[in-house]
From TrEMBL:
Species the sequence originates in: Arthrobacter pullicola
Enzyme class, UniProt record, top EC level: transferase
Protein name in UniProt: Methionyl-tRNA formyltransferase
Domain of life: Bacteria
Location of the Formyl transferase N-terminal domain: 2-177
Family membership: Belongs to the Fmt family.
Keyword Protein biosynthesis: yes
Catalytic activity: L-methionyl-tRNA(fMet) + (6R)-10-formyltetrahydrofolate = N-formyl-L-methionyl-tRNA(fMet) + (6S)-5,6,7,8-tetrahydrofolate + H(+)
Function of the protein: Attaches a formyl group to the free amino group of methionyl-tRNA(fMet). The formyl group appears to play a dual role in the initiator identity of N-formylmethionyl-tRNA by promoting its recognition by IF2 and preventing the misappropriation of this tRNA by the elongation apparatus.
């Protein structure tokens, strides 16, 4: 079966590799255009574009599926298109090109968390079980019938980035299995059923901490927005980033946002919430690199006036 692969970020690369390993005739890759990265803003191919180039595959780079992109897709004559985090809508005129349609790997148990940031929202919500789904892409937002699903237990200590990395590999297997079933004529997509939740793309403001919230909710948000868009608060009028924090249910006497610093060998940085405290494991003050919370605490000594806003 001739397969067009559509994807952009690093989490899509395992699926491209899995399709090749499974013996599919991957005829090309559709991805977003090169983007400026780093301090020097150097134009850099997407991870999928880079991997496709290594494999010698034709690459279509498009921000949106316009007339030129539609013509390029049609010229590859795919029997099916596999899509993983491409990052743009597929118009109806492109959906009809492959005879088997577009099969999307989505990192949630649909219809839960339809949208651009399913894993992040799942972590923030405190889901104990998440997973991935393969479904037939249609005009609506992640509304198509489902071919298959897998489940994954959510470790409360995992960030969304770590969980997405795990799902990218297990989901790649699911995608290859789904396409094999379609090729063999055994795949029967089932309409979605259950409660619908939405997972829109996160903004910088989604990463701002509200210290009046309970410790568990704040920790989930820190994990959910890590690595992107990142967790932050303000201190001394500047943005202060938080990379990781762990619950300290034994500390109950700190007001929301109040910071207690320990020094010496047992240095620590505790911050009050709407319930019990959190211990800051990784922090990044303005103008500095990410560092362990205890190192930051040692640098401030015995200051008692540190309050996050």
């Amino acid at each position: 079966m001739r397969v067009l692969f559509a994807g952009t970020p690093a989490v899509a690369v395992p699926s491209l590799n899995a399709l090749l390993d499974a013996g599919f005739d991957v005829v090309g890759a559709l991805t977003r255009p090169d983007a400026p990265l780093g301090r020097k803003r150097v134009l850099t191919p997407s991870p999928v574009a880079a991997r496709a180039a290594e494999l010698g595959l034709p690459v279509i780079k498009a921000d949106k599926i316009d007339d030129d992109a539609v013509a390029a897709i049609a010229a590859l004559a795919p029997d099916a298109a596999a899509i993983v985090a491409y990052g743009a809508l597929i118009p109806e005129r492109a959906l009809t090109i492959p005879r088997h349609g577009w099969i999307n790997l989505h990192f949630s148990l649909l219809p839960a968390w339809r949208g651009a940031a399913p894993v992040q929202h799942s972590v923030i919500a405190g889901d104990e079980i998440t997973g991935a789904s393969t479904f037939l892409l249609e005009k609506g937002l992640d509304t198509g019938p489902v071919f298959g699903q897998l489940t994954e237990t959510v470790d409360p200590g995992l960030t969304s980035g770590e969980l997405l990395e795990r799902l990218s590999h297990s989901g790649a297997v699911l995608l290859a299995q789904t396409l094999a079933a379609i090729d063999a004529g055994r795949a029967v997509p089932v309409p979605q059923s259950g409660d619908v939740t939405l997972a829109p793309k996160l903004t910088i403001e989604d990463g701002r901490m509200d210290w009046k919230q309970p410790a568990l909710a704040i920790r989930r948000r820190i994990n959910g927005v890590t690595p992107e868009p990142g967790a932050w608060t303000t201190w001394d009028g500047a943005r202060f980033k938080i990379g990781a924090a762990t619950p300290r249910p034994d500390v109950t006497d700190l007001a929301p946002g109040q910071v207690r610093l320990g020094s010496g060998a047992g240095a620590s940085a505790l911050v009050g919430t709407g319930s019990t405290a959190l211990e800051l494991q990784l922090v990044q003050p303005a103008g500095k690199k990410m560092m362990p919370g205890p190192d930051w605490a040692r640098g401030l000594g015995q200051r008692e006036d540190v309050v996050f806003e």
